[in-house]
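retry 2 of 3: previous attempt timed out while embedding zinc ion. Reduced batch size to 1 and resubmitted. Inputs unchanged:
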Amino acid sequence: MLQRKTVEIAQDTWLISEFNLVNSFLLVGSDRCLLIDCGLGLGNLLEDIRKITEKPVQAVLTHGHFDHIGGSALFETIALHPSDHAQFKRWYQELIETELLNQYIRTRLPVRDPQADPEELIGLPRNFGEYHLSVCEDGTVFSLGNREIETIHTPGHTQGSLCFLDSQNKILFSGDMCNEESLLLNFPDSASVKTYHESMQKIWQRSAEFEVLAPGHSPLKVFAKQLIQDYIRASAELVSGSVALESGQNTMHSGYKYQSGNILIWYDPAKLQ
Ligand SMILES: [Zn+2]
Ligand SMILES: [Zn+2]
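retry 2 succeeded.
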């Protein structure tokens, strides 16, 4: 039987990897716990959470893309920035009705876990159903009893992208704003590169309060916060307008791309400013 891998990245703070495709994070407090993102919806995430804690779960999303929202129906409510509510509804419907999920597994898994068999994941049960959206905005604080988690609105990857700050454990949960693999700013509902740049600067102003990044996609580990500086530099270069246009394609993405050192950004040249 396939199992999600879990790693305790700090005390009472778990990275739950949905088969190396996408991460969720479970932050357990003395009264309740916070779940950040709920993956593609393969298998039953809530059953895996119950192996870690029996406490009530408040679920929140870094953004409305389909690879982070799949388990939404398993939770009482699912909180998300209002700017991403419309696309949540659209993506959720596509997740249920189309081949989108199977395509994602077939294209991403060979990159993120070359040993694994995509067909085995495609065969897992899915728990899509009725969901209840609620609002989470800049400054929303989740009180878990003995710890508090603060929401920071960081438009960029999507207009409603959120980061979550655990200043007690010095971790920033950054969703798809700061992955190691690449940054996507080329969705119809992505913000401009300039807005992304400003969001990363806003995050960096708080950098005394965290040491590591816990991103939406990565192997079972966190990253040094300096990755933010690399993205600030690369996005500034793009915004300056001095970068030559280059189109490209790999197994996962296509369009205009900018490679600067270790940073790869996919973007829309019409949305630099
Ligand atoms: Zn995304
Ligand atoms: Zn994602």
